[in-house]
What does this fold into?
Amino acid sequence: MRKTERYPVEGSNALWQMYKTVPFLKVIKNFLVIQTARYTPWLPMKNWLYRHLLGMKVGDKTAFALMVMVDLLFPERISVGKDTVIGYNTTILTHEYLIDEYRIGDVKIGDQVMIGANSTILPGVTIGDRATVAAGTVVTKDIEAGSFVGGNPMRVIYTKEEMEQRKKAKQTID
It folds into this structure.
């Protein structure tokens, strides 16, 4: 189960009421920073933009590939550990606006995590250290440290223990 805070709304759908939740000027600033970062090929500059202008927690040597889309409304609720790779065109969300409510949840990505291209990370999930997320995965729940997951719906392909056994078996063959 994802860890999100739920806020009911009355009247029109929650997205239509977005600016009651988030100041318009914050959205404009975030949009400009995020679009700049998406197209910037210089990794240290991306991390600086995310840390200093969006309030994200980003570890040393973390790499956001081209076109990564971080949450527009609440990017400050994203934390990424050190030495992590986030693949091309991945989306990291910390909010969901529905018909009768909106939800907000922190996204925590550990150290040395590999997230494949075109993945989507939903609000309220934690991805443990050294986990691997296959390309195109929709991350709908927490991922244990060292696990390899993939698919839509996401499923565990290998646990940390199974991954370690595979590495040992490969070393024996080599």
